[in-house]
Write a structure and sequence with these properties.
heterodimer, B: alpha+beta, 5-stranded antiparallel β-sheet, 16 helices, about 45% helix, globular, disordered C terminus
Amino acid sequence: MRPILAIASTTVGEAIRRRVLLVILLIGVLFIVVAPGLGILSARSETTVLRGFMLGVTQGVSCIIAVILTVYMIPNEIERRTIYTILSKPVQRWQFLVGKYLGAVFSLLLMMAMMSAVMAFVFFLQQQSKNVGEVADLMKGPMMYFVQMCLLAAVGIFFSTFVAPLVNFFLTIGVFLLGTFFNPLFQTLQENQNTVPFVKLVAKGVNTFLPNFANYNVQNPIINPTSVIQNEGRYYLGITVYGVVYISILLIVAILIFDRREV
Amino acid sequence: MKHRSSPILLVMLLLAILGQGFLQRKVIFPQWKRDFNPGKGKLMSSAMSPDQILAVLAGFREITAGILWVKADSFFDNGNYDAILPLIRLVTLLDPNEIDVYATGMWHIGYNFTDEEQRSDRRYLPSALALGKEGCKQNPDTYELFFEEGWLWYHKIDDDYDNAVKWFLQAQTKADMMPARKNLLGMAYQRAGEVDKSIDTYFRLYTDSEKRYEKEGAFQNHQNRDTLESNLDNMLVRSVQRGYQAMQRKDTLTGYDVNPPFDVGFSVKATVVEPRVIRFEGTWNVLPVGTRVRVVLRDADFPGAHGAELDWDAKDSVNLDPPRDQTFMQEQLFVKNRRFNKKVDMSKDPTMYPFTKDKYILEFYYNARSAPPHIQDKFGWSGEGMTDKNFLNTKIRPNGQRVVFTSLTLTKDQILRYGEWVDKAPIVKTANYAETGPDNSAGEDVILKIPSLRSGAGTK
């Protein structure tokens, strides 16, 4: 366990020192700070747009950070040959990979926590009622986005074991878009009576095996608090378990590939 | 070195893949579909463009919707109503929880598309209702759109009031409904001919309002309680005077205001005075003002049209482009001094009245349920105090409701004054129509004196 934690902490240090990530984070925070000015765009409740925008920024910025953080992770180590010094020590390849992944997750946690804290502060100030419960409700979004980004980071790490960073960037973004997009598309295909049975079958297969990022887009009832959600806790637990299981799958496959790779 | 995968690892991998598939398909997806789906299935099926979908994917649905709605607002100010329709559709797709956009959209589609004489284009009404239905599906936990849907039936369609009742009832099940807005259900019940339910509703709401006033105080609660008390009082008196209670007891109606039924003596003549301009003249023997006779001019084969109305509720999908080749004109003929005389000019709005078909039907309809209370005092809630020796109809509306209805036919050539009608004004009229002098008298007068509320006076 110690080698994994050592690699993870080194990865967090590297991530914090990467200026490009810090700039993206800063832009995200600035957007969140100016978000209250957009309340005029709401037809009735200015908090609707405020919540929607802040959650959108948090998710978007986190997504960019997760992808940039992970696509270079393994290739950079190989290119700079730093991987040799690590693997020459009593560190297994799987430990290296898991350590790198956990480092990425901790980095994401730090950055997302910072954005969420700013978001909570701005929302609290903007609120007339100063209701802490509403702020806590808003935080459900970033919490689920964090699981979503952990899954995205796992996708990035998985691809980084066998493709170049640029290809990995587009692959990871592509999987994210597809995984976000496929739930509504799948529902439409299933409910449309004119859909060919074969297409329905393929759609069912994709919906079953593709990492489903749409599950974590829980902002709709947060932005519109009138929506009544049944078994909300069970759903959050379900998608968290789903995320953990899927991350495990991606890491296991990544370990199997990385184990066979010549470095 | 040859790597060999551990069988345990592979088994674990297989189990994990199957496990996540099970979780996704059986546990997560059904709940996601029910509670978290942003468009509740409408997003893709309504064919959004790729950039709109990307905006949605980027998590900026609400802000995109907000920007578009601000744009729509500027179109409202400029009177550019046509431009608002696609924006309404887009905003409701992007953010299906924008209740105001649904409500404004329904009102806009239902009321604002008019001709030069401010007659609504009723071909849009099914779309307005469909938009409301979609809004209700997307926002099932708030009363507003259920109320708005009921209001469209109650006020704009002004017929088939049982539909208004249906939606108002659903609105009342929502916790956030404002107390004063609940009162309209009592009125809708009356117009649907459900007198007992109207009384029950007023009584229930009165009891609730009294409790609310005792608990919370506040002027509006006091005012609402007084309004309900007055409504209940009126309703009880009317139900007696109009003979409703006697009918329920199966007593004779002798001495009640609705007895004997009064012959309204309806007759009509329609003259095509110019191409696409028709003058309607006719008689209605009720002296007090407040009578509106509905006239409909429509294609003979207009889909879903019957008995001076359309099958308004036929659509579930919102189509903001009504059929451009179909004609459906609806107007009210106001009676004054027992006659009506109105020129309906359809020449300035060829898109609303295209007249592409060969045959047209003119329908005339009067329904006591839509009448003002002082007329209902004589005619009753379902027309029991009204008759017409030529045109009384108990079939075109459900439950034997007594209405006045007749229809005439016109051809395209007659309406457009083509062919033989170039120099000759086409006239169609009911067999009983008689020309009258300038004083509007047509022989012997039989004048209906409407009894005042609680007067107990006779009817003739």
